[in-house]
User: Fold this.
Amino acid sequence: MPESVDPSAPRPRRKKGRSTLFWVIVISAAVHVVIGVVVGSWTIYKYTRPPEAIFESPPPAVKVPPQNIEYRVQMQQMQRESTRPQNQISAQVDQLLNQRVSNVAGNVSAMVTPALAGTPVVSTGRRGTGRIGGGAGIGFGVSAVNFFGIEKQGERVVFIVDAGASMVEEKRGDFPGYDRVKAELVSMVDGLSPGTFFNIVVFERQVDVYLPELRVATQDNKAGVRKWIEPYWKLEGSKIQQRGTFRKNYEPKMVDWPSDGGSSRLDLALTTAFEMRADLIFIITDGTPSVQEGWTAADQAAFDREKASYTAERARYEASAKGRQEIAAYEKKREAWQKARSAANAERAKRGLPPEVKEGGNYGAPSMPGPHPPYRKTGRYSGDEIVANLRRLAALNYGSDNREWPTVNVVGYSADDGGQAFIRKLDAGFPNSSWRNIVRPSTP
Assistant:
């Protein structure tokens, strides 16, 4: 019998299913989560992965001889107005920092202390401040130099020294006086800043140079100066080691005026300094250059005729009675002169000195009678002509790239009136230059 149902009893509830909208939301959220994880992981990977290695072949090595590297760097520096490359500064900065502060910021004249002992100044030219100026704050490549009382600053410095026989004459202090000049030169070079370019030129009939071009004043480059300058008029016992220029290791390229030698070629020395582009030049000399004018073919032909005529005339004179009498008298005078000279040289030998040196040879000897042999009657350029030519050469060497002309500072070494007159002309021909004359102290 079918079970009866109570109509009043509550009916059981039926479970409802999940709606479509719910599942859409769940699925969409899950997809976004997955996409976020993937994109985030890729981004993190992209910024954290190491870069790919790239291999490049090195450029082929260029072989440069080690001994030429320094020279090339120095030449490039001079061509760039002495702008110092960083590698040079870093190599020398320790040496500069080791100098006393007072040497750099204090009295600049104390940086180099040359002074010819006991040599008073008898006259002086204007005291220019130099091309670079006289204030504080000296640059790494600039040196302050006291050249026998002339104080200047520069970064391309050339010292010029006269080596003529007159520089060792007794009135100029003899050989010991010249030794003092050389010693002071060594002191000046030793005091140069390691960033300064320098060189030394010695002149007489030709020129000798310490270095083939301007070099930086490193300890190595300065170390050889004393040995290099020492042989000039140096005594070895009672003998002279070297008279005048003997190396003859530089020929100026711009000497283009007609000349036929000379005995004191300051013009060659200055031309050498110009070609090296010095900006500060110091000279010590006893006086006026002697530059002979050019010798032409016509001059040579006339000279040959004079020699032939002299030979015949001299033979006739010596055969004549008058000639024999005058020659006999001359021989007696020469004998007396030689005796007096020997006595004077014996006295010098007691003091450890060689026979007295006189420019021009046998100074004071009696003149030979009769016809004299001909000599080359060449004219000599005047001081004005020499200075004008030097100014022309300066314009050629410095004007081509608009460089300032150098200061040319001259110390007269007991220069006579004519020598001082020339020094004044040279001083007036170059900007900011100075001159002075020093003399040997009087002997008590």
